[in-house]
Design brief:
- The complex is a heterodimer of chains A (about 130) and B (about 400).
- With about 130 residues, chain A is α+β, with helices and mostly antiparallel strands.
- Chain A has a single domain, classed as Alpha-Beta Complex (Sufe protein. Chain: A), CATH 3.90.1010.10.
- Helices cover about 45% and strands about 20% of the residues of chain A.
- Chain A contains five helices and three strands, in the order H-E-E-E-H-H-H-H.
- A three-stranded antiparallel beta sheet of chain A has the order 1-2-3.
- Chain B is about 40% helix and about 15% strand.
- Chain B is built from twelve helices and 13 strands.
- Chain B has helices spanning about 15-25, 40-60, 75-85, 105-115, 135-140, 160-170, 245-280, 310-315, 340, 345-350, 365-385, 385-390; strands spanning about 5, 65-70, 95-100, 120-125, 145-150, 175-180, 200, 215, 290, 300-305, 320, 325, 355.
- In chain B, strands 2-8-7-6-5-3-4 form a seven-stranded mixed beta sheet, with helices on both faces. A four-stranded antiparallel beta sheet of chain B has the order 9-10-13-12.
- In chain B, helix 6 (about 160-170) links the parallel strand 5 and strand 6 (about 175-180).
- The longest helix of chain B has about 35 residues, at about 245-280.
- The relative contact order of chain B is 0.15.
- The mean pLDDT of chain B is about 95.
- The chains are: A alpha+beta (about 130), B alpha/beta (about 400).
- At the A-B interface, strand 1, strand 2, strand 3, helix 2 and helix 5 of A face helix 8, helix 10 and helix 12 of B.
Amino acid sequence: MAYSEKVVDHFNHPRNVGSFKKEEEGVGTGIVGAPECGDVMKLQIKVQGDKIVDAKFKTFGCGSAIASSSLATEWMKGKTLEEAAKIKNTDIVQELNLPPVKIHCSVLAEDAIKAALTDYKKKAEQPK
Amino acid sequence: MKFPIYLDNHSTTPMDPRVLEAMLPYFVEKFGNSASRNHAFGWEAEEAVENARKQIARLIHADPKELVFTSGATESDNLALKGVVEMYREKGDHVITSMTEHRAVLDTAKALETKRGIKVTYLPVDKTGMVSPDDVRNAITDKTVLISIMLANNEIGTINPIKEIGRIAKEKGILFHCDATQGVGKIPVDVQEMGIDLMSFTAHKIYGPKGVGALYVRKKGPRVRIAPIIDGGGHERGMRSGTLPVPLIVGFGKACELCEQEMAAESVKLATMRDRLQAGIMNTLDEVYLNGHPTQRLPHNLNISFAYVEGESLLMGVKEIALSSGSACTSATLEPSYVLRALGVGSDLAHSSIRFGLGRFNTDEEVEYTIKRIIETVTRLREMSPLYEMAKEGIDLKSVQWAAH
């Protein structure tokens, strides 16, 4: 199986690897997947106002899973929460040229985005 | 050092130049059909085939007449299982095999279950991947016609107690087939001493050409009979029709001859390199686990799981080294290695496994380079792994409610 150039690029030079403190204000965390299935993604966003000012990820998974989450952080940065919610797995498939057997990686990345957004909203609604 | 480095010798081996040299005259100059009995071209080819038969038989302590040439080990496995089951159908309808056999045996057994109504017992293995002779004994019924257990496993290299299983088969009067594809040419194989009645093996795993293999079929004590799965001109005493691929057979013979001469020294050299590879990796990285048996394994095999790192990403990270992984992502089924699962290795660690397969042409320099690159890459990927981060924070990953997908 040959990887697309973009997947290789994200794998060799992943964007935004790292973590924010989960408790930090304005941070939303999404963890999706399971070790038994061979992929776990952790995607975090830092929000100011309604804008995502920073994003970070850590991924256990194949090259395509790492590339999908790396791309997701790149795309989320600078977007509003509403815009970020519109990122679709099919966009990731197209951008990274993922073969059919790797589509689940993009689905997982979309789930991670949604989970991070949900977590942020939940935290924001909580009384301080 | 030349790149990429080939460390996937369980999958296939490069052909030895001495094998190629032996084969070359049999393509253009000596092109005869070994079945042509009436002219010099045929005689020349037949002589070459019979010479190869002797070279191959010597390596496994068989009689040259007990070898049936096939297209490879998959066909040999098919012929052994299907051929015995069909021939001995009157006698019974039960076959015993194990859960860690190669797909060529497992899928053939499954086909016999669904298409022919045969009952198959798939024996479990212990946590080192070994079949227990007692389990074999206990699974035998009065309807058992065949026991099929592999010599050494293709993923983890564990060597089964074939001699004991052979003795049980003899004692009970049941035919014993052994898929010895990974073992022949690597460790001593003696069909007499091991009590093997049928044995599959192939040329391309021992520095010979792809496309040719053999099935050993015992001629006496007992005389084993098999029904052919390919009909035609009645070649190979009716057991496998089809014009013999003379150049491939000549190469197979030469490859066996070289193994016979060099195996003793080569296996020591490979085991030394393998032990260095294992120590180099395991002494530096934490949470690295050996899969298979610590001592009863093929000299050139090393299979380890790197916790918190997915196997395919590791392969991608060291793409200048050719390796194999038990990760689902490298298979079409999206299931991690059934062999590792049968050993009781968790799915998470099965996804994290890498198989190293050393071979005749690997060097110490390549081993040192591999150690360095594996350590670098595992370290880098762990820095990117949420699981490693959680484990370092003291979170028990088994206690986490994961959303399986």
